[in-house]
Amino acid sequence: MTTDTGSSKVVVAHRDIAAGAERIFELIADPSNQPRWDGNDNLAQAPAGQRVRGTGEVFTMTLTVGATRENRVVEFEEGRRIAWLPSEPGQEPPGHLWRWELEPVGDALTRVTHTYDWSRLTDEKRLVRARATTADKLQASLDRLAGLVES
C-alpha cells in the first residue's frame, strides 16, 4: 500500500513482508546492502563495515552518478526504526530525511513503513529530485526488500 498526497512533502509506503523484523532490519541497517533493494536506482555502493548501531553515527554511500553522500543517523531503535539525513561530505544536511519503521505482526510477518520527508529541504537544486521521489519509488524499495527476505 502506498500513500502519496500529491503535493505533500512527506511520502509514505507500507508493505507487510513475510519475514521477521530482525532479518529485514539487518538489510536496512547495513548500508552495503542498500543498493540491492533501492527502488530509486540511486545507490551504487557503500563500503562494508558500516552497520548502524545508534543515533549520531554517519555512514557513506556512493550514488549512481558517482557522488558521495554522508548519512547522519537521527533516529534509531534496533530492529524497529532507523532514519537518516543525507548530505554532501562535510556539509550540513539540506533537510530531507529517509525513515524505515518495522512493526512485527507475527513471528514471520512484519509491517514495514518507508518514509521520505522533504518538508525541511532548503536546497533549491534538490527540489526536482525530491518531487520525483514518489510513493511508487518507495514501494519499489519495499518490494525489492521483500524479494530478498521472502525467497
Automatic annotation (TrEMBL):
Transmembrane segments: none annotated. InterPro entries: Polyketide_cyclase/dehydratase, START-like_dom_sf. It holds the Pfam family Polyketide_cyc2. This is Polyketide cyclase. It comes from Amycolatopsis alkalitolerans.
